[in-house]
Each structure stands twice: as structure tokens, then as C-alpha cells.
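Hi everyone,

Forwarding the result from last night's run.
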Amino acid sequence: MTTEGTTARIVRSADRKHWWDGAIDSWQSFPATGNFDLASAAHGLLLVHNEDTVAPGEGFDRHHHRNTEIVTWVLDGVLRHEDSVGNTGVLRPGVVQRMSAGSGVLHSERNDNGYTSRQPLRVVQMWIPPSTPDTAPSYEERDVSDALAGGDLVVVASGRESHAGRAAVTLGNRDAALHVARPAAGQPITVPDAPYVHVFLARGEATTGGDELRQGDAVRLTGGGSHRITATAPSEILIWEMHSAAE
């Protein structure tokens, strides 16, 4: 689909890569598990975009990252983060987390609800490269629930100079920003104008360019230009604005 110079590719939920180990059910917009060349399948700067459902008490044991900006967004449940720099965090819906792995960091992530709770964790984890490699590892989180209440797009994470003072947390990539909206039924969202944009419908229903979107669907926009998405039910939408591509 091409509109006003923008090429739009819809990726349906069921067409994502799927990985499951009995405790973690992962739907991956880009092949992540076992992929050592993430840039080859990236859209813009977006290397990884995984929607994971984690069983109670389970999670990702301590593992290593380097030179990766990791943004975590909880949809349902509670996530506990611990890392080798001494940061800890308990993330719930409405709280954005950014971890800059920089020169290297170990961390673990688990469903903070115990085995007997029967409450799964549903979380989206997203990776982009940093603008400057091998910086000191750092961590930031912020509750943006109040800002999202109006249904409009909120800049939840950004390294863009134009978002200085507005982004909830700061990314270590000057060409990228993550926006989130929770629109009501009938509410339109204007997508940021950028060479690369990734729109993900985390919940609800919407339309864009005459196409219907359901939970888990994504739209990959290339080439810039205006674009709009309209919720047809109460929804949650994650939009990456990117002004360069991964190398």
C-alpha cells in the first residue's frame, strides 16, 4: 500500500515469528531468538520487537547485553528487573523502562507474580542500537499513566533533540523515539512523520488507510509523509519514530 509517498506494509499478528519454551510465549515482529545479525531484518532502527507472555514466577534468567538500547513496556501483569549495575525495578502497565546496555550489563526479568497466582505477564520488549557505543550502562523508568489518560500520543522514550524536556525517559539514540497512545473508540491518531515508522496495535481494534487492524498487527511505514490510525475500540498503540536505519 502506498499513500502520498509513504509505503506501508501491514504485518499481521499471526505472521510474526513464534518461539515458545513452555514458560515464555514469544511473538516476534523481527526474528530475534537465535539471530546474531539483527540489523539484517530491522525496520529502520528497530532491531527487536517481541510481545512475550510469561508464566507466573517464570522469566529470563540473568543474561548479557552490550551496546543496545532496550525499552520495556508492560501490557498486563508485573515485571521485576534486576541488573549487575545495581538497578532494580518493578514495572506495571503505564510504566516505561529504558536500559542502556552500553559497554556491557547483565540483567534478569521475571513475572513478579508467583507460581500460585495464575497471573501471566504480557510485555513488549524493543531494542534499538545506540548512537554512541560503549558508554557506561544506565537505567531509567517513569510512570506515564496520567499522561496517557487523554488518549493522545505521548512521547515515552526519545533521544531526539526536538523532544528534549518532553520525553518521559531519554534514549541513547538521537534518531529514535517511542510514542504510546490509549485512544478511545473513534479517536484518530496522527502518526509522526519520519523516514521509518513502526506502528503496533498492542490491544484493541483500529483502521488505517482503509485497512482493519486487530491486536498484534503492525504497520511498517517507509518514506515519510502523513498517516493516520483511528481506533474503532478502546486501544493501546505503540509507535516508533525513526530518522535513520540500523547498519
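The first helix runs from residue 145 to 148.

Cheers,
N.
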